[in-house]
Amino acid sequence: MNIQKSDEEWKKELDPESYRVLREKGTERPFTGEYDRHWEAGTYVCKGCGTELFSSDTKFDAGCGWPSFYQSMDKSKVMEKADHAYGMTRVEVLCANCGGHLGHVFTDGHGTPTGLRYCINSASLGFSKR
Q1: Distance between terminal CA atoms of the chain?
Q2: pTM passes above 0.90
Q3: Any idea where the domains of the chain sit in the sequence?
Q4: Cα separation, 46 vs 94, whole angstroms
Q5: pLDDT tens, residue by residue, 65-116
Q6: Cα(51)–Cα(87) distance, rounded to whole angstroms?
Q7: How far apart are CA 125 and CA 123, in angstroms?
Q8: Model confidence band, residue 9 (pLDDT cutoffs 50, 70, 90)
Q9: Please, what's the b/e burial string for 41-60 (b: 16 or more CB within 10 A of its CB; e: otherwise)?
């Protein structure tokens, strides 16, 4: 991780929901996020640090209630970490630059070129229009 800030610094820079998701590993309610049904061409970035994470070209409608992508823009931009919270085994996705929690990746991306579904919280993302 390149960016390290105190909790107080993050709280000043992020809105409460983005702080809860990015820094406290929260999850937004399904079908409520700004980017769930967002289909403009562009790049999705980490809301905490601006790192480019996902291209709209890899976004698909998984019907799960969160923005879904079948791959990241660059594997070095995201970290994957085993997550055993809540009695489940999942793979957490984090921004490699600031360590912010983005969501989880699943292997149920049927019909996608990679078979993956990066299920990402809108609250952890910003968007740069192409």
Answers
A1: 27
A2: yes
A3: 7-129
A4: 9
A5: 999 999 999 999 999 999 898 888 899 999 999 999 999 999 998 889 999 9
A6: 31
A7: 6
A8: very high
A9: eebbbbbbbebbbbbbebbe
Strands 59-60 and 68-69: antiparallel
Q: Catalogue the active-site residues.
A: 119
Cα–Cα dist 43/63, whole Å = 21
Cβ atoms of 104 and 25 within 8 Å: the answer is no
Q: What percent of the chain has pLDDT over 90?
A: 88
- 73 neighbors 81 (Cβ within 8 angstroms): no
- Cα–Cα dist 93/100, whole Å: 9
Give the angle subtended at the CA of 117 by the CAs of 38 and 88, to the nearest 5°. 120
Give the CA diameter of the chain. 43
Helix/strand/coil for 76: helix
- Class of 7-129 in CATH: mainly beta
CA distances to 61, 64, 105, 119 from 50, rounded to whole Å, are 24, 25, 20, 19
